[in-house]
Amino acid sequence: MASAAQKRIKSISYAKYGYLFILPFFLVYFFFQLYPLINTFIVSFHGNGPGTEDFVGFENYKTLLFGGGRRESVISKSFYSSFKNTIILWFGNFIPQIALSLSLAVWFTEANLKIPGKGFFKVVMYLPNVITAASVAVLFLQLCGQSETNPGALNILLSKIGVVEQDATSGLYKTIPFVEGVWQSRGVVMFIQTWMWFGNTMIMLMSGIQGINPSLFEAASIDGASSGQVFRKITLPLLTPIMAYTLVTSMIGGLQMFDIPYLYHKGTAKNEEIRTIAVLIYDYFHAQLDENKMGYAGAASVLLFFVTLILGCISFYITRDKDEIAKKKQRKKIAKQLKQESKQFGGFSI
Amino acid sequence: MSKMKSVYGEPKDNYTFKIRMKSTILFIWFLFLTIVCLLPIYILIINATREHSQVANSISFIPGSHLVENFKSMSTNQNLKLAYNAFHGYKNSLFITVFSTFLTVFFSAMTAYGVHVYDFKLKEISYTVILLVMMVPVQVTSAGFVAFMADIKLTNTYWPLIVPAVAAPAVVYFMRSYMKSSFPLDIVEAARIDGCSEFRTFVSIAIPMMKPAIAVQAIFAFIASWNNFYTPNMILINVDLKKKTLPMMVSALQSSDKVKDLGLIYLAIALSILPIIIAYVLLSRFIIAGVALGGVKE
């Protein structure tokens, strides 16, 4: 029997402090993130324009996904085209980005190569990632944009190399429309995204490679493996989880692509070909009073939410702590065994 | 012995030569990538020092002599003044960024501490919720967020830009991982025995011990908040120029066709990214280390 004093000491619980410490986070979270998320669902079931108060059920989803009348099919079309644009832009930036980052990460971590200034290169390659994306978009707009009198920096540079020709008599350049052209503008946006993100991905992958047991590389080099073999047989298989993580986070990031597609167009003329899903949602809920499309914005957000949820679950599954789960299973097993053993003794614990 | 030589050649020379060759080629490739990374920024800075007609018709890699004039016309050009004001931009961006960075690191450390140190019933569930929340992109909640903020009349104020910084799940996750590896619970026990209150233990023992993690996360939170364009642009719907943040001003510059002076536009863009570049040059070592740490943990 425990004495009264012992009992009292045992009953001091610090649990309430735990709740107190995490309270501010959850308060702000419920108020500024969870309720807005619920509100997005609510908004998606309500009308557009002046009739935002009316409940319309699944009407908005139907319009976005299947169209209908003439006005509705325009909206449905722009929804699908923005979805398509998002996927095109994401592929166009992810494939060169992962190829570049992976090769750089491997080269940077190869111990026997003697390359001076590795630290400097790393710093420079990460630099584009910290610069304000809005400023980057406007900067590239200036560099790539052109008018009749002003060929723009990129076109001048290309004419120096000889890609763009200059008309001998009038002195005007036969410029490439990097802002107005469909694939040219997409290409520039893909380039900007790659330019901004390859340094980040490279450093992530590099730390992944450094986490691989170095004795594996040593053993391989003693056995006379070429660097290609080392990459295929050791680096790549052991890097799979972090690669998968990079893939999924990049997908989720790609769905949110906003700043650059939103700003990369001339003046007020919007470029429909680089309009992503995030830009579409923004345009819908930011439209002024009469053409307010809050309902459509909500419905598109909800659809985006489910896509993200699926991707998020995949990444959660990939990055889960396997050791922890194994330990938990073992603990449960032991507990079960103990319980059974105690049952054998008629429910009395020994 | 001799047979082996004939098959493999001079083993040592061959190896050294190969390595040297590969290193040289890679060095050139890295130099090329460096140029690609820096060229747009370099041209931006050079063009900011040049005159409109020079910028429009030629490209140069040598600084021009028009920087002072560009600065002067920044305060005289009427069209530019309608869209862009560097002083107010710096002030507003700094105000929002400093407060939200502070809230992010302080409350994230507090939440991570709460989950790590104490045992309570909802501990595991709440941590899982935090991890799940990490994945929800801001674009998804934004429609509901704006509608809600408009309902409670908080649009066009800074509150919705600063207060949500308290709940930063990714930072909590990082700090929890850091605590797991370098914050022994015995210290908390020792503090309790010495009669230290729980909150005081957190402020004067845990926070100093977590300085490295806090510094890294503060840098990232600062950069993210400074560069944020989406949230301010949707919350500050119709505010005066004096209340706009720097990225918003840059975007206003883009949508106004009236500013014709290219040197001036380049200068305005350069001013918007200059602070972040200076900060990056000073702190690059920590930033790179921080990104690498994030990669390992995840």
Describe the structure.
The complex is a heterodimer of chains A (350) and B (298). By secondary structure, chain A is an all-alpha fold. Chain A has one domain (40-320): MetI-like fold. Helix content of chain A is 71%, strand content 0%. Chain A has 14 helices and no strands. The two termini of chain A are 15 Å apart. Chain B contains 16 helices and no strands. Chain B folds into 2 domains: 2-73, no CATH class; 84-256, MetI-like (MetI-like fold, Orthogonal Bundle), CATH 1.10.3720. The two termini of chain B are 51 Å apart. Chain B has helices at residues 2-8, 11-48, 52-57, 67-76, 78-83, 86-117, 123-133, 138-151, 159-162, 169-182, 186-193, 198-209, 211-227, 230-235, 246-255, 262-297. Chain B is globular. The model of chain B has no long low-confidence stretch (mean pLDDT 85). Chain B is an all-alpha fold and 298 residues long. Classes of the chains: A mainly alpha (350), B mainly alpha (298). The interface between A and B is large, with 105 and 99 residues.
Q: Detail the poorly predicted runs of chain A.
A: none
The tally of beta strands of chain B, per DSSP, is: 0
Distance between the ends of chain A: 15 Å
Assembly state of the chains shown:
heterodimer
In the CATH scheme, the class of the largest domain in chain B would be: Mainly Alpha
Would you identify the CATH H-level superfamily of the largest domain in chain B?
Answer: MetI-like
Strand content of chain A: under 5%
H-E string of chain B: HHHHHHHHHHHHHHHH
Sketch the major β-sheet of chain A: none
Count of discrete structural domains of chain B: 2
The percentage helix of chain B is over 70%
Which parts of chain B are unreliable, with pLDDT below 50 for 5 consecutive residues or more?
Answer: none
> How many helical elements of chain A?
14
Average of per-residue pLDDT values of chain A: 82
Query: What level of helicity do the residues of chain A show?
Result: over 70%
Largest sheet of chain B: none
Measured on Cα atoms, how large is the radius of gyration of chain A? 28 Å
- Any idea of the CATH topology of chain A? MetI-like fold
